[in-house]
Amino acid sequence: MKKVLTYGTFDMLHPGHINLLRRAKEYGNYVIVGLSSDEFNAQKGKTSYYTYEERKHVLEAVRYVDEVIKEENWDQKVIDVQHHNVDTFVMGDDWKGKFDFLKPYCHVVYLPRTEGISTTKIKTDLKSK
Ligand code: C2G
Asked: Which residue's alpha carbon is nearest to atom 29 within ligand 1?
């Protein structure tokens, strides 16, 4: 069992999220998503349209996702990697370098973001209609 771990808010799930999750699955055969809690989102300066439970419900239906755990703070990643025996940590490259402290514990991979799509853009586009 080769386990992959990634984190995010995954609000209003869109093709950029799916592209990330699909590629994450290519690094193993079991993908764990650390899904940001509503409280942690506030710490990230983000508000999500859907609640944690709604976002978890959606993510669990994605074929590339095997398990969803709660992301509650910036400091849980080392513990999560060890506790879940993670082989590879994957994030979009807007985070490039930010999680290199995980390199002693697992492979760290930053993948190119999907250009031209984001939850913010969806909201902005809808407002301008
Ligand atoms: N993503 C992407 N392409 C996009 C949008 C998002 O590849 N067009 C990726 C991001 O790089 C991230 C994942 O999809 O790896 C989830 O994106 P967000 O929900 O925006 O996550 P974020 O707020 O960056 O939270 O501790 C890490 C944080 O929780 C990451």
From this structure: 8
**Is the model's pTM score more than 0.70?**
yes
Q: Which protein residues touch ligand 1 with a CB less than 6 Å away? A: 7-10, 16-17, 20, 36, 44, 46, 71, 91-92, 94, 113-114, 117-118
Burial 19-49, CB ≥16 within 10 A → b, else e: bbbebbbebbebbbbbbbbeebbeeeeeebe
CA dist 102 and 5 (Å) reads: 11
Taking only the tens place, the pLDDT of each residue in 21-74 is 999 999 999 999 999 999 999 999 999 999 999 999 999 999 999 999 999 999
Taking the C-alpha atoms of residue 81 and residue 76, their distance in angstroms, rounded to an integer, is 9
Closest CA to 99 of 84, 90, 34, 47: 90
As annotated, the active-site residues are 44, 46
What are the pLDDT digits (tens) for 87-118? Answer: 999 999 999 999 999 999 999 999 999 999 99
